[in-house]
Amino acid sequence: MQATAHIIDGKAAARRLRETVAIEVSRLQQAHGLRPGLAVVLVGQDPASDIYVRNKGRQTNEAGMLSREYRLDASVSEAEVLELIDTLNRDPEIHGILAQLPMPAHIDEQRVIETISPQKDVDGFHPLNAGELANGTPGALVPCTPLGCLFMLREHFHGDLSGQNALVIGRSNIVGKPMAQLLLQESCTVTIAHSRTRDLPAVCRRADIVVAAVGRPEMVRGDWVAPGAVVMDVGINRLPVEGGKSRLVGDVAFDEVCQVASAITPVPGGVGPMTIACLLRNTVIAACRQAGVSCELP
Ligand SMILES: Nc1nc(=O)c2c([nH]1)NC[C@@H]1CN(c3ccc(C(=O)N[C@@H](CCC(=O)O)C(=O)O)cc3)C=[N+]21
Ligand SMILES: [Mg+2]
Asked: Checking CA distances to 65, which of 55, 57, 80, 121 falls within 20 to 30 Å?
């Protein structure tokens, strides 16, 4: 009889990381008069972005950092967005710039990403930072969601992931690809699965670590998962329920998979909170680099 999985507490892990960040922020203020600043650029309305931005602004301030939000109308031109980013690139109070994705269809997201100064690219989406991650350059700015997953996995495995069979489901530049790079760097044997993968359930059953990042509600079922596997659920899906409300579910069928896995992240309270904590961490690291001072963060 399989015991129910350990539930990895992303909220608690995020609280600890934010506490460490806050201590570093006050040290930087004392020692160097440096106050890390983050600018978030939002174009139009998106439900997922709203959840994120609501929590982010408060947590940035709570860590003692400067937080600025730029909310632009959905009809804004691409040129205006690029101009704002260019202004922020030159703003000495701002060390991190996050252009909230997705953007409206008439805006070329890749162009926006490539306009952000690589030094201020706290999302780690700029090709220079993606390339540094792929090359294993120490200190590359790494995308926040995969970085948050990695921190939780390292803690769960007491720092040693080497030799684990890791499956990443999803191949986006934002989560899947950087997650695979990070796991490879930890000496995992990495598989990337996607919509064209043949017999995904069978591929999944071979994995010791599963990272689900596809955006399909409850896609990973209990009988896809090897007994004892560790399952990280990156999905944030809003399902409508009666009364006009919505329920947040991941890409993993939690009630089934928690009967089989040895550990699992819940949604909410798993990867999401760690994503924001990693954004604060990246902003402090970016600020230190721009100021030419050293940084004491994991
Ligand atoms: N440039 C860019 N960078 C991003 O990192 C980015 C983005 N654009 N666009 C939108 C997505 C989404 N995302 C979330 C992060 C945290 C939670 C989060 O904290 N979720 C809570 C749930 C909050 C609730 O209860 O609704 C949790 O999982 O516990 C959610 C969503 C970052 N994103
Ligand atoms: Mg677009």
From this structure: 80
